[in-house]
């Protein structure tokens, strides 16, 4: 196999520091040079990868040390960067932030796993020489990390840039590759992140605006030299879970996927794994379609049903067809926003909206997150998708709170050993062949997920 392409990890000191905007600009600027770019995002995330995909013109893949582990990350990176001329990996949170005091699962650990140099964005807001002390601290903190340069983001004036640039380079001996002025981009935010591009009518203009700013203020040739100096390595094996052990045989079940502006949280690897294992995917919309299509199982992902609640409630025909299919025994696997859609009502700002009514719950949107972070679950009850005893890693991030209907008898499939359960420390609400959960899985972290959904579809 050919070696992995030249690469760079873009990191910062904290989340919300403009790292995604800077990465978008770098990817777009490299693409504008005629280079094919493989985009990657560290950590569990759906929205930033949407934007990175738009910039690169190729699907962005998630690399998560907690969910996948190092060997799977190297396999995934090699598999999905194959044939590309460059790869850009956006870190998350602070460079050394992890689950513990030694930075397990941090962006720094990911960079070392990929043997990738790191370019760090330094926030220069209302400061000057102190930035050099921060840069020097990061350089010395982990000698095994290939910290290769810095980008000042943002800077206010030419004088401030000059002082910071000289101070950082004199203190660290590393280059400052650019100084980006504060950008005024038309990219609105929601729930501690960007709004998906599907809801942003001026995606292309926003991307080009970022690219123009970055290209004008970052030394792209020097950046490419750093990327090219990354060590060569190769990986022959595809990531576990993406492909079946042997080619699928027999009839191909039809698995429906509800994908629209309300439900867009699907890792591309999950969809590809279903197809690779023998499913024909049938996409539909809970907002626009008059009824659920004829399928053998349904995958209902997360998203923002709360921002589309009036439209989802208005499509009563689709809700009724989905409820009838569930009652007739259709296997349905629903995550987070999909779980909320399967409830009776969704309450947003005090107003209740009718949902599908498959599960005996109402969901109430709160002002603060009700579950956020990595999870670890162990299956305890028989269900259509997971074998009893199976342990899987996942992640959750939701603002909704579940309220069981009076007298409802809830049957839950698994115990949540890390994270927050749906009811107590239990998750995975079941009814007939439906399972709804707040926990998002990535197939490369849970290789048994796709075969389980295929098996349920085959009956």
TrEMBL record:
Residues 231-251 are annotated as: Disordered. Pfam families: CbiA, GATase_3. Its EC number is 6.3.5.11. Pathway: Cofactor biosynthesis; adenosylcobalamin biosynthesis; cob(II)yrinate a,c-diamide from sirohydrochlorin (anaerobic route): step 10/10. Residues 8-184 form the CobQ/CobB/MinD/ParA nucleotide binding domain. The keyword Nucleotide-binding applies. Keywords: ATP-binding, Cobalamin biosynthesis, Glutamine amidotransferase, Ligase, Magnesium, Nucleotide-binding. Residues 254-445 form the CobB/CobQ-like glutamine amidotransferase domain. PROSITE patterns: GATASE_COBBQ. SUPFAM superfamilies: Class I glutamine amidotransferase-like, P-loop containing nucleoside triphosphate hydrolases. The record marks 440 as: Increases nucleophilicity of active site Cys. GO terms for molecular function: ATP binding; cobyrinic acid a,c-diamide synthase activity. The a and c carboxylates of cobyrinate are activated for nucleophilic attack via formation of a phosphorylated intermediate by ATP. CbiA catalyzes first the amidation of the c-carboxylate, and then that of the a-carboxylate. Comprises of two domains. The C-terminal domain contains the binding site for glutamine and catalyzes the hydrolysis of this substrate to glutamate and ammonia. The N-terminal domain is anticipated to bind ATP and cobyrinate and catalyzes the ultimate synthesis of the diamide product. The ammonia produced via the glutaminase domain is probably translocated to the adjacent domain via a molecular tunnel, where it reacts with an activated intermediate. Catalyzes the ATP-dependent amidation of the two carboxylate groups at positions a and c of cobyrinate, using either L-glutamine or ammonia as the nitrogen source. This is Cobyrinate a,c-diamide synthase. The gene is cbiA.
């Amino acid at each position: 196999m050919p070696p992995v392409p030249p690469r760079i990890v873009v990191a910062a000191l904290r989340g919300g520091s403009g790292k995604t905007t800077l990465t978008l600009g770098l990817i777009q600027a490299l693409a504008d040079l005629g280079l094919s770019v493989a985009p990657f995002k560290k950590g569990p995330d759906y929205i930033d990868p949407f934007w990175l995909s738009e910039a690169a013109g190729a699907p962005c893949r998630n690399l998560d040390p907690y969910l996948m582990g190092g060997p799977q990350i190297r396999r995934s990176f090699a598999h999905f960067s194959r044939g590309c001329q460059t790869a850009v990996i956006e870190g998350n949170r602070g460079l050394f932030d992890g689950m513990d005091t030694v930075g397990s699962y941090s962006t720094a650990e990911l960079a070392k796993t990929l043997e990738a140099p790191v370019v760090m964005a330094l926030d220069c807001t209302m400061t000057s020489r102190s930035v050099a002390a921060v840069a020097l601290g990061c350089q010395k903190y982990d000698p095994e990390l290939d910290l290769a340069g810095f980008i000042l983001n943002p800077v206010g004036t030419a004088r401030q840039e000059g002082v910071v640039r000289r101070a950082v380079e004199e203190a660290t001996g590393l280059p400052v590759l650019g100084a980006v002025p504060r950008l005024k981009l038309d990219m609105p935010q929601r729930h501690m992140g960007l709004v998906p591009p599907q809801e942003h009518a001026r995606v292309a203009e926003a991307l080009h605006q970022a690219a123009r700013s970055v290209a004008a203020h970052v030394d792209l040739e020097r950046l490419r030299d750093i990327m090219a100096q990354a060590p060569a390595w190769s990986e022959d094996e595809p990531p576990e879970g993406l492909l079946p052990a042997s080619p699928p045989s027999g009839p191909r079940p039809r698995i429906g996927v509800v994908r629209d502006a309300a439900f867009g949280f699907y890792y591309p690897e999950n969809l590809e794994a279903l197809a690779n294992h023998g499913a024909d995917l049938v996409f539909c919309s809970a907002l626009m379609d008059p009824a659920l299509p004829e399928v053998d199982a349904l995958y209902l992902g997360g998203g923002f049903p709360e921002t589309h609640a009036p439209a989802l409630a208005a499509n009563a025909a689709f809700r009724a067809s989905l409820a009838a299919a569930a009652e007739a025994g259709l296997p349905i696997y629903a995550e987070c926003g999909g779980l909320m859609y399967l409830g009776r009502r969704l309450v947003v700002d005090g107003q209740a909206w009718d949902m599908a009514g498959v599960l005996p719950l109402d969901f109430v949107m709160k002002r603060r997150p009700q579950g956020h972070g990595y999870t670890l679950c162990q299956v305890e009850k028989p269900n259509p998708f997971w074998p009893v005893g199976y342990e899987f890693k996942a992640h959750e991030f939701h603002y909704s709170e579940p309220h069981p209907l009076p007298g409802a008898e809830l049957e839950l499939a698994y115990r949540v050993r890390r994270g927050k359960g749906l009811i107590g420390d239990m998750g995975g609400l079941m009814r007939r062949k439906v399972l709804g959960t707040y926990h998002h899985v990535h197939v490369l972290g849970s290789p048994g997920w796709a075969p389980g959904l295929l098996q349920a579809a085959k009956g």
